[in-house]
């Protein structure tokens, strides 16, 4: 059994080396045959035959072994994958040629637990006649598979079942060879001198620690500057909310939106003409208070971001004013259209919901029909399975009767063979002697070949040593003249002398220095231009902030009602941007650079003279 176990181990080792993505089976078999030359001819022939069969029928064996790992072999190791492939190949394709006795010896040389589990799974009649037959029929023809492979396996199933029961009786802990335990080293203690007892040290005096200072109260309080900033923020926010509420309540009548086709009424025109227009009074001088906020230094990104914000606000206000100038109307038509579209969308949603409800009912009825069909199909399959199991039971009873007859015949043959045991033993002794003589002759030939190879290697070494010594005795020239201006002449592309190489390196260094200086100048110029652009944006931001401060201060200034036919009449207060106050003559304009407000207001410019 050890002989067959080694053969199977060699086959498994070769299968582990095979990689189907890279190696081809023909080249792999050639390499394996060259690596197995040291074995005997019988062993080499057996290993190569099993290896070639496993590679040829790799797809069939993979189907069975993968299904075994999925169903019954979940706890088996993947390292035994090729072992199960070899056993499957021997049982399917070599059981008739090897004979059942030799097959039993090969199986017994392997671990019994793993082999019993796999053989019980593979020789199960339900597995052979159902999914194994279907899977193999996808690769080969069904008639060929059933006649050449499945019928022999079903015929050998009773013998294999007896082998499985025999192997299950063997204890798993039984080892094939008894190993002698190695002697454990016993440690010995060192003969060391006993240490002297240590003296008790004198305790050191405890040092006096100075009393620490208490933590100041300012550590747990906010700084005064932060508190002042918070107070200013709250005051500014409350003031801004009051101004916003006041602006929304006192918006002007001329900025109220109306439809394009609605002309102004005559009554409104008469009322405007009858109103008494007072004179325009000079606005008092404004006083601006310097804020208490600490100036904050802005970086480049903050400056550019604030400039872009002001630019967007100006563009938005211009668009709004242009729309008012063009006569933007109210949103009554848009609201009517929006109401109609919402009603239409609601109707469509209701129709879609009804459609989905009907579809749900249809799908529910279809599911009920499908469930009924599935139940009928399951009943039909169960009846077919019962018929198949009944047929298999009949076949099993017939096989058992055939096996009983076969066993009786075997017993009779064994009784006859016991009479000729001595003749068989003599033949066996002669065969063994012949094998021993052949092995001795092979070993002698191998020893002679190795001796001849050693002599040839020794002769070659002696020749090499004599040649080296002859080369050492020849005179050599120690000095060597070097011409730096001479080209070596090796035939390489771009070959040059040492002097020319030095000159080229010097020129290259000068060009690199020149390029670095030009690059440095470009960087300095770029920095200057960037700083100039940032300075311009800072100036623009400062102007915008000053203008916004003036406009915020002018919002609370009372403006009397305007006189003259060319001025529009507003309410008591008007919001006047600060940069328009400096113009000399009075006029009515819509500014091009006006920050965003919550309500549209007309602009009344006054003369300072």
TrEMBL record:
Location of the region described as Disordered in the Swiss-Prot/TrEMBL record: 194-217, 512-531
Alphabetically ordered keywords of this record: Coiled coil
Positions with biased composition (Basic and acidic residues): 512-522
Coiled-coil ranges from the UniProt annotation: 407-460
Record-given protein name: Cilia and flagella associated protein 99
